[in-house]
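Deviation from plan, reported transparently: zinc ion complex.
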Amino acid sequence: MTFEKHLIVKSMFNSMLLLIEKLQTEMDCINFFIKQRWNDKVECPYKDFKHKGKVYEFKDGKRFQCSCCDRIFSYKTGTLFENTKIPLKKWFLAMYIHTSHKKKNKFNAS
Ligand SMILES: [Zn+2]
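Because the crystal trials were delayed, the predicted structure below was used instead.
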């Protein structure tokens, strides 16, 4: 399976400031992540299985089921966050610190 991991992360970096200001709870982060990833139209990540099925959202807002292949996936499936139990909020914060630190170093070097 191939996923657009780098694209997802890049677009998240661009929105990092907004993220820190607006995302207070883990669910805020999840909703934000879903919007970044799918732009409100959740798609089945199992694209090796060619179909155009409908995707149903679970009540928890974190999981989805594809009506075509019946597979259940979460907002994390196929992303860098797939195999971690660390909350998104911590990841976002860590990435924010990492990117702002990088920028600072670049500025000092010039
Ligand atoms: Zn599917």
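Residues 44, 46, 49, 51, 53, 66, 68-69, 71 surround zinc ion (CB under 6 Å). We consider this an acceptable substitute for the interim report.
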